[in-house]
Design brief:
single chain; 319 residues; mainly beta; Leucine-rich repeat, LRR (right-handed beta-alpha superhelix); 2 domains; 11-stranded parallel sheet; 8-stranded parallel sheet; 10% helix; LRR_dom_sf; Leu-rich_rpt; repeat; glycoprotein
Length: 319
């Protein structure tokens, strides 16, 4: 059984708000024991979600995004059949993540643009079925748990615009199904692991690490990741000389976007950039590429490019 009430108020009622507690209590008390999908995105729901929702034990997908919810019970994360939970774009929603016991069913968890805070629990590693996890623009803090490395099905990880600190756990570089890793605008520090022999990222396409406190040299092995198209390392503290040794002539990645601006780099790679232009970015306008590569290395860029991420498509794949 499915119940879709997305934007049900219509354009004529955009100024109205509905008590989230009262409305969802009605749904939960309707003896919809077989309800599996409930979508209430952009319904002007406001206030707290009550524990009566725990009666919906068959629920596999719950979408409460784009509302004004302020509280969501932690117990809801543990519904036995819940696979997809979207609470994103509830700017006044506060809370923290619970501990996740082994066997938790969650496959997709979207908390972006909420006010969730605290630390990511080590037990996040128990979510063995998790494929997408987004907490962009929240208030999380503390170190990143290395237990993320247990998430063998993870394809999308967006941790951007929080207050995470410390080094990037090496376990992140062993997520073989990972396609997109966004960690810009945090307080991450330390070097990027340099041994390509230990990388297992055959599908990584987008790597955004801008606006942190990362340091050390940029591992040349990053430029040989077989699927990498976008690499943003700007606004960090990387050091070193960008020459033909550090920035190899023969890049095996299909790189089309590279930003190294606002670091502590020295640039001597005129020949390398020409080779890249000819052999690796043939579909990219040469002028644009030269600006992004050469002038970025000289810290001439004036714009911080941190592409907003929005999950418009997430639920279409599960309906």
């Amino acid at each position: 059984m499915e119940l879709h009430l997305d934007s049900f108020m219509g354009d004529g009622y955009t100024s109205a708000t509905i008590s989230a507690h009262e409305w969802l209590s009605v749904i939960a008390s309707a003896e919809l024991h077989h309800l599996q999908v409930l979508t209430l995105s952009d319904c002007n729901l406001a206030g707290s979600i009550g524990t009566s929702m725990l009666n919906l034990s068959s629920l596999s997908l719950l979408d409460l995004s784009d509302n004004d919810i302020t509280h969501f019970p932690q117990q809801m994360f543990h519904l036995p059949n819940l696979k997809v939970l979207d609470l994103s774009h509830n700017p006044h929603l506060t809370g923290s993540l619970p501990e996740f016991p082994p066997g938790t069913a969650l496959q997709q968890l979207f908390l972006a643009f909420t006010n969730y805070a605290g630390r990511i629990p080590h037990s996040i590693g128990n979510l063995k079925q998790l494929s997408e996890f987004t907490v962009r623009n929240c208030s999380f803090s503390g170190p990143l748990p290395d237990s993320f490395g247990n998430l063998g099905k993870l394809a999308l990880l967006d941790l951007s615009r929080n207050n995470f600190e410390g080094e990037i756990p090496f376990s992140f570089f062993k997520l073989s199904r990972l396609e997109a890793l966004y960690m810009s605008s945090n307080k991450l520090s330390g070097p990027i692991p340099s041994s390509y022999a230990n990388y297992d990222l055959p599908n990584l396409t987008y790597l955004h690490l801008s606006n942190n406190q990362l340091n050390g040299t940029i591992p040349p092995s990053l430029f040989t990741l077989p699927s990498l198209q976008e690499l943003y390392l700007d606004q960090n503290k990387f050091i070193g000389i960008l020459d033909d040794e550090a920035f190899p002539n023969s890049i095996s990645s299909p790189l089309t976007m590279l930003d190294l601006s606002y670091n502590l780099l020295e640039e001597t790679l005129q020949n390398s950039s020409q080779n890249l232009q000819a052999s690796n970015v043939s579909t990219l306008d040469p002028t644009i590429f030269m600006v992004r590569l050469i002038y970025a290395c000289l810290r001439a860029s004036k714009t911080f490019r941190d592409r907003p991420f929005r999950q418009h498509h997430a639920f279409n794949r599960h309906k």
